[in-house]
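Why does residue order matter? Because the sequence determines the fold. Keep that principle in mind as you read this record.
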Amino acid sequence: MKLQRIKNITLIVLAILITGGSIWLPGYLMKKNNNEMLSDIKEVPAEYYSGPSEAIIKNASKQLTYEQCLQLILGSWESTTSETSEEFCNINEFGIKTILTTRVEDLYAKHIYPVTLSSGIDKWYSWSATPYRAIDTTFKTYAAIYWDIRFFKYDGSEKHRFIVSESGDILYAEGRFDDRAVLGNFTPKTSNSSYLFYYYGEYLNTIRSTDNLRIINHNSETTSYRTSTATDAEKEKLDTAAASSFIDDFQAFSPDNVFFISQATGNAKPMDFYASYQKTDHSYKILLLPKD
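Structure:
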């Protein structure tokens, strides 16, 4: 009888323990798991922080000033560059090609580029235009577009490449000629370096223009461009290889001439640049880089 009573008590205790454990254990394990999840710091998968959407980038980029776009493209505002789609551009490839041919005509008239790209039976060119985007590395929100445009003469005797902002600024120009006579009689007038800039694609009214100073007005403001020959120290410091950050397959070169350009709009802080020139028997190059 006593043994049966002990057995019954044992079964009752086991039943109570099992019931209590069934109630307490799930809650304990859930609390422990929650504490571990909240206190443990884990690396977030890349897909959760891929950056702002294209709509946000496009809207934010509309707020950029002309100067900020140039800073992004040329790398004085830290950025990364990559080929992009025409849908993110403010102008299509035919539009930028038209702007560029007009700009090259102007550079030819100012004795900065040796030929024009005008069409004709003896000057017919095929061409291609590829858009690129420079986007800031910090927020990945602000972007500026520029184009890589190439021209090929029908007989293969000339090849031209231009890196141009959507504003019409010539950031890089390269011409290659089979006929050395094309460059043999050409001497670039580097004091006209300010004409590499074309303030945001506007038609400009020039107030004053000399070899070393050009002042233009636009939208009730004025922009001045002051140019001078770079010092020997500036020439030694200049590294054309820096252009590889925004020019695909760029090959650094040693310039023959380097000109200093200071661009100032209104009361804004001036932007300073170097324009480098190199001429050989069969090639001619111009490169625009920001002053550090």
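The mean pLDDT is 85.
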